């Protein structure tokens, strides 16, 4: 229950402060999900070599976004289903407690952390929470603001083919890598 996408906002007459942004997702089977805005990814720099290029970025957990009539605001938004976000946090808390326990013992290793039951439960939960499947989707945006506004063009459709789903499924392989990098950073910090 994750959707990360670029969105552009344009306001014609006045400044608007958005306090909540949700996406209603409905599959052709009738299965529905509501995804809430949890962060904005801001590119910082792009590093290029002859073989590769990658972008460094900063994830902001912002509470509001201010739209200005003088400019179009384009951002890369991260959305997650609230229940998924909350349950994932519980699993991450268990991992953190286990890591703290291993740190207290004083002889923990990266492999020991990554192969722990707590990590395996976290990986399993994230992989099983994958909602996307082949077929047609309808999405609509829900925006909350204390400012008065009229929302236009907030209904869209898209289709995922079986090949699209195979490609999205490949992201599951990045889960372990993401947490490995997070734990490496903690271990390196502790060694200093």
Describe what is shown at a glance:
The protein has 192 residues and is of the alpha+beta class.
Would you spell out the secondary-structure blueprint of this structure?
Layout (H helix, E strand, L loop, with lengths): L1 E8 L6 E12 L4 E17 L4 E8 L4 E3 L5 E9 H24 L4 H5 L2 H12 L6 E11 L9 E6 L1 H8 L3 H19 L1
Antiparallel strand pairs: 1-6, 2-3, 2-5, 2-7, 3-4, 3-6, 7-8
Helix pairs in contact: 1-3
The computed structural class is alpha+beta
Q: Please report the total strand number as a whole number.
A: 8
Biggest pleated sheet: 8 strands, antiparallel
Poorly predicted spans: none
Alpha-carbon distance between the two ends: 37 Å
Percentage of residues in DSSP E strands: 35-45%
How would you characterize this protein structure?
By secondary structure, this protein is an alpha+beta fold. It contains 5 helices and 8 strands, in the order ββββββαααββαα. Strands 1, 2, 3, 4, 5, 6, 7 and 8 form an 8-stranded antiparallel β-sheet that branches. The radius of gyration is 20 Å and the shape is globular.
Observed structural traits:
192 residues, alpha+beta, globular
């Amino acid at each position: 229950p994750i959707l990360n996408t670029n969105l552009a906002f344009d306001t014609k007459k006045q400044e608007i402060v958005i306090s909540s942004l949700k996406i209603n997702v409905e599959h052709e089977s009738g299965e529905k999900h509501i995804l809430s805005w949890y962060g904005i990814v801001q590119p910082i720099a792009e590093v290029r070599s002859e073989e590769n290029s990658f972008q460094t970025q900063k994830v902001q957990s912002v509470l509001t976004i201010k739209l200005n009539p003088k400019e179009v605001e384009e951002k890369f938004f991260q959305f997650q289903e609230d229940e998924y976000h909350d349950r994932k946090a519980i699993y991450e808390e268990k991992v953190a407690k286990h890591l703290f326990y291993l740190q207290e013992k004083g002889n923990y290793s990266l492999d020991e952390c990554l192969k722990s039951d707590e990590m395996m439960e976290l990986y399993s939960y994230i992989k099983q929470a994958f909602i996307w499947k082949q077929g047609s989707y309808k999405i609509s945006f829900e925006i909350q603001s204390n400012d008065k506004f009229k929302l236009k063009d907030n209904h869209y459709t898209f289709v995922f083919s079986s090949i699209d789903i195979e490609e999205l499924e490949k992201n599951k392989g990045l889960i372990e890598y993401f947490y490995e990098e997070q734990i490496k950073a903690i271990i390196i910090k502790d060694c200093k």
